[in-house]
Write a structure and sequence with these properties.
- The structure is a single chain.
- By secondary structure, the chain is α/β, with parallel strands linked by helices.
- It has 2 domains: 236 residues, Rossmann fold (3-Layer(aba) Sandwich); 85 residues, Rna Polymerase Sigma Factor, Chain: A (Orthogonal Bundle).
- 36% of the residues lie in helices and 14% in strands.
- It contains 10 helices and 8 strands.
- Strands 1-2-4-3-5-6-7-8 form an 8-stranded mixed sheet, sandwiched between helices.
- It starts with 14 loop residues before the first strand and ends with a helix.
Amino acid sequence: MHPPLAADHVDAAHREVALGDFALESGGAIVDYRQSFVVHGEPNAAGTNAVLVCPALTATHHRLDFLIGAGKALDPARWCIVVADPIGNGLSTSPSNSSAQPGMRFPRFVLRDMVEAQRRLLVELGIERLHAVVGASMGGMQALQWAVSHPQRVGRVVAMTPMAKTAPWAVLVTATARACLCADPAWRGDVEGFAARPERGWRATTGLMNALLMRTPDALDALGLADRDAAHRWFDDLVAQQAAIGFDAHDYLYQSWAYEAHDVGTTPGFGGDTAAALASIAAPALVLAPPLDCFNPSSAARAAAAAMPNARFVEIPSTQGHLAATSTRAADAAFLNATIAAFVLE
């Protein structure tokens, strides 16, 4: 189910392609896989203006809409922008919408499976090479994976707040978020899953992820919450906003498992060597992160950039933490649009 459109969303026709029974890296398969996507702009005659955008954990094709539009980094008048919904986000085939493999019957998948689904989507669209692949958070991790898995098909990489290998801190964050969900009375176990929406579990998860770890103490101070009562009211409003989005708890379990298991070093041919995988990325890369990120440690983004032969790291001058790579603060969005626009046009 598509979440409600927000004021800053850029709407486009929702499209999907049927990819049949989709083989996974694990050896399993997603039955009757359908890949959801949107397209902004048109391909040019030479086929050189395609940009792939990869959404983040729990996000849809609207995640990076603040970069898309006239005069922005990804201007549809110049670029053909394909935004592919990742496996398990509730729009592409997911535990929440699969009739053949619903809930906990869904097979586990990894980020490389998301990338393979995107590759097959591009084949269906007749796109052979990407001018750039762009993503933030889990989307940035997919962008790096694209450059490792398909070096001849990627011209440039833009990765905001990424990790090449999920840091232990981020592993514990997602594990704690799952524990919050599964502490709810609606949880029936690893076979039966959730009997209903885990309202108390989602409240706890929202407190952990959206109120705290997506932000920094300075970011919360900037909200101007005057006292305890104001903080509680703000939190109640945040819980209501997240509930309105309606992300499914089963989908969160599966996407977070994929998130925490990621490592570009386990790409076939690299034998688990993360540094070697990053060193193989010849494409120019722009890696961006704020000074402090309480979800994906900024040190992971810096290390990834340092390990790539043709990458540069740019610090986002923001106190917003993980939310620096969003439109939460207008100055952050303006900085990212200007920096990314210059890079993709180099």
